[in-house]
Amino acid sequence: MFTTCKISLLSTMLAIFRIEDKVEKVIRSYRVTELTDKEVVFHDILKKIEEGSYNRSGAKAILLSPVYRIAISTAAFLVLIFLLHFFFSGEIIENKTLQANAFRLPDHSRVVINANSTVRYPAYWWKREIKLQGSAYFEVQKGKKFIVKTRRGDVSVLGTRFQVAETDRDLLVNCYEGKVLLTSQEQQLIVNAGHSLRLDYNGKVSETSESMDYPETAWFRKSFSHDELSTVTNSLEDFFQIDILIKTTQPKHFTGKLETPDVKTAVQIICRSLDLTYSFQTDEVIIIHEKRGR
User: Fold this and answer.
1) Domain Protein FecR C-terminal, which positions (predicted)?
2) How many CB atoms lie within 10 A of CB 101?
3) Are strands 196-200 and 170-177 parallel, antiparallel or unpaired?
4) pTM value?
5) At what angle do helices 66-88 and 2-29 cross, to 10 degrees?
6) Residue 151 in contact with residue 166, Cβ under 8 Å?
7) What CATH number does domain 219-289 carry, 3.30.750.24, 3.40.630.30, 3.55.50.30, 3.30.70.270?
8) What CATH number was assigned to the domain covering residues 90-208?
9) Dihedral in degrees, nearest 10, Cα atoms 82, 84, 90, 96
């Protein structure tokens, strides 16, 4: 009796492994295009898995024992759980503090999320698309279309700096560089750099073309008094979400006030004050070092 149960358990485990291996091959061989809707992909994969359970040669169906039926049901359930996690899981960034918080998306775009605001985006980043509740400032890396979805409309760009703020009364879009496209249920509107557009709850649009400064949340403002250079760069790293490497032979100290929405400008001020120079190793890694010949 013990031997029979042991063999049945082993057979069940082998059956599960074989089924999971087939399912994994189906998933790994599947390719998702940029514009494919996730629900369509989900049902398509399930269809392929179902088709794979039939004999392709057209042979007669084989009756499975209860043990194998349980194994197949278990494997199918595990696969379903995996697919649900794959397609519907995501990241949620919620700012409940009174200060703005900065972070970077998987494509390295920078987001400064304001107080009492929430950003949601999929864990699997094949589409550059996020959902926003509240207000946030964006510095989008150039590339494929980037979409910010709100209740009143979608804001899409290819690469630019802009701000989106949604309240119960209206939706405000400020464009600082490049251009953005606002799509609502009623219309599509282009917002150019230096322009601001407001869409109220009735669908009424108002636009201004006054010279606009970057929002307060985009500005780095801090004073230093004979602080170590590493202390200064640590503050810049936290705010701009980048890495700054210091390669100097002697310790350096900085005194001054930094007010800028751009990390490059901040580093230029520091280097000019300390007679240093800098270089970009990547878009997100800056090296501060001594000038050549020293």
Assistant:
1) 223-287
2) 21
3) antiparallel
4) 0.63
5) 30
6) yes
7) 3.55.50.30
8) 2.60.120.1440
9) -120
